[in-house]
Amino acid sequence: MREVLLTMEAVPVTVGALVVSIGVVGLALVVLAAVLGGVAQSIVGFGAAFATVPALALAAPELLPGAMLVAALPLSVTMAIVGRAELDRSSANRLMVGRLPGIVLGTAIVVLVDVRWLTALVAVVLLAAVAAAAGGWRVEVTPGREVAAGVLSGVTGAATALGGPPIALLYRDRDPAVVRPTLGLVWAVGIVLTLVGLAGVGSFTLTQAVVGVVLSALLLVGLLLSRPLLRVLSPQRVRAGVLWWAGVGGVAALVRVIAG
């Protein structure tokens, strides 16, 4: 019990040291990204990870993927519960079957790859996702492709906290009312399994968990702000803004890695 109390007492110190290391500019960037991510998520159905992950990759890559996974969990659970009447259980099952081996592979990448190159991987996944979304790529949905998308989502989700793009690309033309709860369930289960796996290999820290809770609160702030902003922001502009933000962030993170 004494060891647990000592560990909990050390959390504010660790988080405080992290804030100091990030700096005012980096901290402001992450806070702004999370709030904007919440706004975008509410208006266009995605954006939480697209906005927040590049900011973390630039300011505090050591927080990835754990902090973003924790931040996304409440949002995923909410999506699954609110739209549960429209949930496509067959698709969800196939996606989760694929995600299991993907999570194992993605966890291995986190363990084996240095933070610097993990940041580069985040940047590459971001840029690929932006290119796919902006380019209008479309893929026919089949059971086999759902499993394959689940595998890829498991890998990118565990390694970079960007598990959404592979599945979102596959379901681009499906009814959003069905997609939201289906992906919410898949992401919620996948996030829990990923966090358990990362914790098991020592790659999920208490600091990541605490920062993730803070990020989750900032996403909620963005969700609340989105209602009045709907009057002045069209979904098309928000979608374009998210893609530009993610693209610039991906390039900046890649340049930082190359520059050393």
Can you put this structure into words, describing what you see?
This protein has about 260 residues and is an all-alpha fold. It contains 10 helices and no strands. The chain is globular and about 45 Å long.
Features:
single chain, 260 residues, mainly alpha
CA distance, first residue to last residue: 42 Å
Q: How many strands in all?
A: 0
Query: From the alpha-carbon coordinates, what is the Rg to the nearest angstrom?
Result: 18 Å
Percent helix, as a range, is: over 70%
Low-confidence segments, ≥5 residues, pLDDT <50?
1-10
Could you give the order of the helices and strands? Answer: HHHHHHHHHH
Please, what is the oligomeric state?
A: single chain
Secondary-structure-derived class:
mainly alpha
Q: Count up the helices.
A: 10
- Shape, please? globular
Instruction: Please indicate the count of domains.
Output: 1
Strand content: under 5%
Mean pLDDT: 85
State the major sheet: none
Furnish the topology, listing elements before pairings.
Layout (H helix, E strand, L loop, with lengths): L1 H43 L3 H12 L6 H17 L6 H24 L2 H21 L7 H18 L3 H7 L5 H25 L5 H24 L5 H25 L1
Helix pairs in contact: 1-2, 1-9, 1-10, 2-5, 2-10, 3-8, 3-9, 4-6, 4-8, 5-10, 6-7
Characterize this entry briefly.
Residues 1-10 have low confidence and may be disordered.
